[in-house]
């Protein structure tokens, strides 16, 4: 049976990447694509690389246009998805690639986003260690899924195994991320102009202000940390690469944890995962190695002099960080093979 799909925000980066991956999915038909100001134009006018979808025209993003499909992807700016969900109550599966349905805490939502707090949905990071197993079990049969924030899922996947196994202390986490500008979306912004970012590295949302911080904390609580036992210093740095995240995260080693127990925590968490890769000891990933792949690649170092574990993780923010996670979650929700249409191999050079 072929499932009908609508993708809103189809002229943007996240929407375009969802479409690129769905175009190779044998179980779906991309029937409808929508946008706001670009409605009425051909999809390929905004996504010229999507040649197999050249027959599609961007329609207005309205509940009436999105209704009547088996699956709807909402690839909209933060704060815009929730307005459609009530009107799409009869849609069997909705996947939100924005932030609207990620946070469980109304207090966190008010502090970092503001406005009414939408209902939280199943969190779309299948491999994330949680109490009792993995997040994927909460995605099987789900009807509403919140795809993750790319920075948040990268850091959460980096540290959750150590938290779940009790070998690191989440009370002193430091994460610094090199981030490509595509994570900020396609809207024209002065600080994202080539003349502003080429040849420069630019920190942003410094000092605990980034909106992905409560999402990381939420994921680590799900992995077993106490909500008042997490201290996280999170600093993203914009760097001149179109896509990609390289996240370097460290945390103190719990007293008594051996080197074998520490590395074993990550090996046990991800040894059987097709899309999360733990590299051999002493080897660390590059963003180039995961370009175009639905893979989080990570290396782990045990620094006994500093008594800390450091995890370096690389993802393609538009694939594993957003669209790939959304489609992987869709596959689980619909009972399809989890790996369907998701690239394991990257693009090089």
Task: Explain what you see.
The chain is α/β, with parallel strands linked by helices. The protein has helices spanning about 15-20, 65, 80-85, 105-110, 135-140, 150-165, 195, 215-220, 260-270, 320-335, and strands at about 5-10, 30-35, 60, 70-75, 95, 120-125, 130, 135, 145, 175-180, 200-205, 230-240, 245-250, 275-280, 295-305, 310-315. The strands form three sheets. Strands 3-2-1-4-5-9-6 form a seven-stranded parallel sheet, covered by helices on one side. Strand 15 (about 295-305) and strand 16 (about 310-315) form a beta hairpin. It is globular. The mean pLDDT is about 95.
Give a quick summary of the entry.
With 349 residues, the chain is α/β, with parallel strands linked by helices.
Write the layout of secondary structure elements.
Blueprint: E1 3-8, H1 13-22, E2 28-35, E3 58-60, H2 63-66, E4 71-74, H3 82-85, E5 93-96, H4 106-112, E6 122-123, E7 129-130, E8 133-134, H5 136-139, E9 144-146, H6 150-165, E10 173-179, H7 194-197, E11 202-203, H8 213-222, E12 232-238, E13 245-252, H9 259-270, E14 276-278, E15 296-303, E16 308-315, H10 319-333
Parallel strand pairs: 1-2, 1-4, 2-3, 4-5, 5-9, 6-9, 10-12, 14-15
Antiparallel strand pairs: 7-8, 10-13, 11-12, 13-16, 15-16
Helix pairs in contact: 1-10, 6-8, 6-9
């Amino acid at each position: 049976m072929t499932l009908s799909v609508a993708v809103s925000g189809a002229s943007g980066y996240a929407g375009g990447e969802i479409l690129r991956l769905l175009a190779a999915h044998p179980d779906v038909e991309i029937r409808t694509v929508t946008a706001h100001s670009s409605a009425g134009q051909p999809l390929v006018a905004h996504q010229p690389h999507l040649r197999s979808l050249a027959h599609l025209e961007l329609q207005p993003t309205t509940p009436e246009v999105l209704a009547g499909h088996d699956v709807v992807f909402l690839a909209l700016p933060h704060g815009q998805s929730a307005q459609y969900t009530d009107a799409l109550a009869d849609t069997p599966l909705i996947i939100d690639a924005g932030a609207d349905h990620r946070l469980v805490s109304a207090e966190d939502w008010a502090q970092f986003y503001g406005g009414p707090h939408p209902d939280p949905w199943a969190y779309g990071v299948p491999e994330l260690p949680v109490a009792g197993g993995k997040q994927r079990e909460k995605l099987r049969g789900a009807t509403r899924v919140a795809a993750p924030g790319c920075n948040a899922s990268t850091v959460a996947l980096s540290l959750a195994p150590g938290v779940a196994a009790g070998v690191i202390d989440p009370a002193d986490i430091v994460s610094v991320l090199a981030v490509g500008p595509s994570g900020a979306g396609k809207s024209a912004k002065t600080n994202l102009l080539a003349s502003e970012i080429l040849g420069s590295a630019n920190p942003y949302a410094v000092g605990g202000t980034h909106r992905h911080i409560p999402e990381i904390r939420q994921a680590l609580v799900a992995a077993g940390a106490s909500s008042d036992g997490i201290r996280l210093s999170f600093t993203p740095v914009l760097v001149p690469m179109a896509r990609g995240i390289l996240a370097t995260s460290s945390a103190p080693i719990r007293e008594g944890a051996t080197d074998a127990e520490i590395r074993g925590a990550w090996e046990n968490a991800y040894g059987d995962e097709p899309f999360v890769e733990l590299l051999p000891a002493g080897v660390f990933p590059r963003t180039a190695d995961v370009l175009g792949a639905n893979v989080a690649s990570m290396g782990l170092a045990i620094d006994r002099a500093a008594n800390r574990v450091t995890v370096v993780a690389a993802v393609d923010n538009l694939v594993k960080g957003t669209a790939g996670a959304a489609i992987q979650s869709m596959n689980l929700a619909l009972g399809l093979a989890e790996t369907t249409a998701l690239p394991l191999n990257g693009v090089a050079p």
